[in-house]
Write a structure and sequence with these properties.
elongated; Nucleoside Triphosphate Pyrophosphohydrolase; alpha/beta; eight-stranded mixed β-sheet
């Protein structure tokens, strides 16, 4: 199952209707063809009163291929950084709490990009990748282009709470170490695409 966000609202792609949470019943559709997928997506995109969109097909790979073909694909990478003091690294950007991340350059290794972006955006030095975490997906527009960004996330570790320097040129106003409770509270003011990732990680559900 995939969950993609547009306007901070979820688009769910699943193999069967049973795989879709019971809370998503009203706007759930079978979508076996490209025409089905494009019809339901464009209706959702144009009508912002829809709280979500859920589509399913026996062939999940075909469904996702159809859906992804509607967009220009962008790769990004970042991390949830934990210190030896069991604190977590967050940034504040454009009025919301966020995790350090950025675009993967052409030909760049994704893990290398994740470490580079964390270092550039926060000033932390040499975080160690522990494991890969679930990716997040969100849609945005650049002029007349529909963009689908997949962000690859990694759990990272540093021994101590290093001094931090937010990358202000990227509109980052703060880079801070948070306790677990503070990190959970930050979910009240972050993007919906990150809420499940952060809460799942901090509650050991990933």
């Amino acid at each position: 199952m995939y969950k993609v966000f547009l306007y901070n609202k979820p688009i769910i792609l699943a193999q069967s209707q049973k795989d879709i949470n019971k809370g998503y019943a009203d706007h759930t559709y079978r979508a076996d063809t490209f025409q089905d997928v494009s019809h339901h997506y464009f209706r959702f995109e144009q009508d912002r009163s829809f709280p979500y969109l859920a589509m399913y097909s026996d062939n999940l790979q075909q469904l996702t291929d159809h859906f992804f073909s509607l967009f220009e694909f962008v790769k990004a990478a970042g991390g949830i950084v934990r210190s030896g003091e069991n604190s977590y690294l967050f940034i504040h950007r454009r009025g919301k709490w966020d995790l350090p991340k950025g675009k993967v350059e052409q030909g760049e290794d994704v893990q290398y990009a994740a470490i580079r972006e964390v270092e550039e955006e926060t000033g932390v030095i040499a975080p160690e990748i522990i494991r890969e975490l679930p990716s997040t997906f969100h849609i945005y527009r650049v002029k007349n282009k529909r963009m689908l960004k997949r962000t690859y996330w990694y759990e990272m570790y540093v021994k101590t709470e290093q001094p931090l320097k937010p990358q202000t040129v990227e509109e980052i106003s703060q880079a801070v170490w948070m306790t677990r409770d503070q990190a959970l509270a930050s979910c009240q003011n972050t993007y919906y695409s990150l809420q499940e990732l952060i809460k799942g990680y901090l509650n050991d559900d990933l």
